[in-house]
Specification:
Layout (H helix, E strand, L loop, with lengths): L3 H25 L8 H21 L1
């Protein structure tokens, strides 16, 4: 099975990095206005979610 000693810290680090990147995009994309971070994370996460859905069919 998966090694949770590696998987859990890697997931925490990846999630934090994704949110920091999304926050940076939200702040800089339409300066001086700020996009809601939920919109940015949806744009970043939707393609990955579709990839997971399509990969599961094969």
């Amino acid at each position: 099975g998966p090694d949770h000693r590696v998987l859990l810290p890697a997931s925490v680090l990846a999630g934090a990095t994704l949110l920091l990147f999304a926050d940076l995009i939200a702040r800089l994309a339409m300066a001086p206005a700020e996009l809601p971070i939920g919109i940015v994370t949806a744009f970043l996460g939707a393609p990955f979610f579709l990839y997971l859905l399509l990969r599961g069919r094969h």
